Please model this.
Amino acid sequence: MKLQTRKQNHQSIPTRFSNEKRSKARTLLGFGLGLGMCLVLAGCQKAMSPTFMAVGVREVERSNERAVIEFVIEAKNPNREAIPLQQIRYTVTVNGNEVFTGLRSSEVSLHTYATQVFTLPAVLPISSISAQGEVSYSLVGTAQYIPPGRFAEVLFDADLKVPEATIDLSGTINLGE
Model:
């Protein structure tokens, strides 16, 4: 007994696009998505970071064990939209010795092309400062801020993009009476 097989004519089914056209379409789609992401992320990057300058230092309170010092800081917004400052982390050194580390909610919004003055407190041990005279200090830290734009705010709230501006201040504290 002999089995007969039928030969089927396997013709290629015409497709709408050839492989070459599909490859080009994928390449263009990938390029378009990449370009779109760059534009979206670049939109979040166009805001410049705020800058900080020391305006003054004052002793607020003193006891036998410690002194409370306030650092008066001027923050400047170089952007055409307001920037809310969030948490500020900072470290204070006196005469080269680290004496205080703090985390503070700034509760400051920097208005358009404006400056805003705020204070950062530090509690220093009396042993780190002399009763009278001048001591050198540095205050170094970072300030988190929300850049302009709704999308940037969503990224900030989701902890996906939390920009920080550097605070690097130094000077002298005059403790004389």
Notes: The mean pLDDT is 82. The helical segments are 19-45, 150-157.
